[in-house]
Amino acid sequence: MLNIGQMMKQVQDMQGKMTAMQAKLGETEATGQTGGDAVVATMNGKGELLKIKIDAKLVDPSDIEMLEDSIIAAVRDAKAKIDAIIAGETEKAMGGMKLPAGMKLPF
């Protein structure tokens, strides 16, 4: 069984790892796309949308709804990729320690 001193050391180590992970994720980017790169969205690990690239052929004033749907799909794709990266980095930082159900990192 761990004593209080050992537990505090582990908590401090974990905090350091999480801080480093968050800094790394801020520099990490993921790109999502739709239909042959017609719309490309780039997000960072903080979930901030950095870029949107739209193929000019997709811009049809009579069908704005398709363009809007394509943008949403590309952003969702980028977000799913970032979420997977965050989950992997969090698992590495936690050293295999499991979180209670429903708890999500980074906080």
Question: What is the count of β-strands?
Answer: 3
Tell me what portion of residues adopts beta-strand conformation.
Answer: 15-25%
Structural category? alpha+beta
Describe the biggest sheet?
Answer: 3 strands, antiparallel
The tally of helices reads 2
Spans of at least 5 consecutive residues whose pLDDT stays below 50 are: none
Give the class-level CATH name of one domain: Alpha Beta
Helix content: 40-55%
Describe this structure in words.
By secondary structure, the protein is of the alpha+beta class. It contains two helices and three strands, in the order H-E-E-E-H. It has a domain at 27-92: 2-Layer Sandwich (Ybab, Chain: A), CATH 3.30.1310.10. It has helices at residues 4-27, 64-94, and strands spanning 29-34, 39-44, 49-54. Strands 1-2-3 form a three-stranded antiparallel beta sheet. Helix 1 packs antiparallel against helix 2 (64-94). 11% of the residues are buried.
In short:
This protein has helices spanning 4-27, 64-94; strands spanning 29-34, 39-44, 49-54.
Which features would summarize this protein structure in a list?
3-stranded antiparallel beta sheet, alpha+beta, 107 residues, rod-shaped, single chain, Ybab, Chain: A
Topology record:
Blueprint (H helix, E strand, L loop, with lengths): L3 H24 L1 E6 L4 E6 L4 E6 L9 H31 L13
Antiparallel strand pairs: 1-2, 2-3
Helix pairs in contact: 1-2
